[in-house]
Amino acid sequence: MKKKILAILPISIGGRLTTSSIIDGYRQNDCDVFVYDELYDKNLSEILEQNFDQIVGYDFSPLKIKVDNNLIYPCVCYFSDDIRSKTSGPEWEKYLPFLERDDVYTFYWDKVLTSYENFKNLHYLPHFVNFEIYKDLGTKPEFDLMFAGRLDTDYRLSFFEELVSKLPDLKIAWHAIEKHYLDAKKRAKNPELIDKCYQGFIDNEVDMAKAINNCKIVFNMNSQGISSLNYRTFQTVACKRLHISDYREELALFEGNMPFYEDFSDLIFKIENYLEDDEAYNKVVENCYNIAKVSHNSKNCVRYMLKIVQ
Fold first, then answer.
1. CB of 7 within 8 A of CB of 58?
2. Long-range contacts of 180-186 (CB under 8 A, 24+ apart)
3. How far, in Å, CA of 93 to CA of 209, rounded?
């Protein structure tokens, strides 16, 4: 009999994209998935009249619903935010003790943070994506470089502004919600550079896959966790585009194939070299893709989750 899953789609944008790949993975493993969208749906009590085999979601969102409504079926929480931080939910301290329950299963994306915790059903699981959505679409990129995320700190904003000014001949795309765009523009030393790069907001897998396909290189500034790579890493390699990350221990997941930058000058050097050297570019892209296709695809990773949660 097919497992019946209640999946909670959270309000946060990063959480919605991550959860979408989790939902895809359950469906790829022949589960019936019913989605409750915290941003738009208002019929939770009606939905909870049904019986489910699991409730699944991002950070504390499914656990909150389980606890508040005394649900008896297992809860699966996938965290890609620090569990002990308001980034994982404004009421994280209230729901933290419930991670010790026998029927609550926690999957944590950061290897070092996982080693710090000892919850009963805690498992390390890096990010993964749906390779049926994130894939090479065969389109010619319009942009040379892309960054997606907040420019919410002075360091990030100044780093991005300097990068754009030092690479005036490159077409650079930046994606973020309008609120973060307006905030960055207000704080920027050169707001015209922010206007030049801003390409709007993306909140779904299909459009994100198109945006990544529309660039040659994605560069990353990881902000959460200690050792982990964020979701953008795996989206990019699945689309067969080159990803350059700041240094993280879990670059080891890509067996030395993924380039990283040590500082601003190193990033400039690597961007220019990979844009000029097609052979080197294609080698990195292919090697990273082949590793992620096996180890970081939604079907295999959710199969592992299903095996754990009996």
1. no
2. 180/150, 180/151, 180/152, 183/151, 183/152, 184/151, 184/152, 184/157
3. 35
Token pair of 134, please?
């994130």
Residue with tokens 């404004």: 90
Determine contact, residues 9/35, Cβ cutoff 8 Å.
Answer: yes
Structure confidence at residue 310 (pLDDT): 78
H or E element in which residue 263 lies: none
Which residues have CB under 8 Å from 256's CB, separation 6+?
none
Identify the H or E element spanning 219. Answer: strand 215-220
Query: Which residue, chain included where needed, has tokens 């998935």?
Result: 33
Condensed to tens digits (0 to 9), the pLDDT of residues 9-57 reads 999 888 999 999 999 999 999 999 999 999 999 999 999 999 999 999 9
Q: What is the pTM of this model?
A: 0.94
Q: What is the DSSP string of 92-123?
A: HHHHGGGGGSTTEEEEES-HHHHHH---TTEE
Q: What single DSSP character describes residue 274?
A: H
Return the closest-CA partner of residue 216 out of 142, 303, 307, 295: 142
Residue type for position 132: E
- The packing angle between helices 231-238 and 13-28, to 10°, is 50
What does the buried/exposed string (b/e) look like for 158-189 if buried means 16 or more CB atoms within 10 Å of the residue's CB? ebbbebbeebeebbbbbbbeeebbebbbebbe
Give the amino acid at 133: I
Do the Cβ atoms of 245 and 222 come closer than 8 Å?
A: yes
CA atoms within 13 A on the CB side of 283: 8
Distance CA 8, CA 22 (A): 10
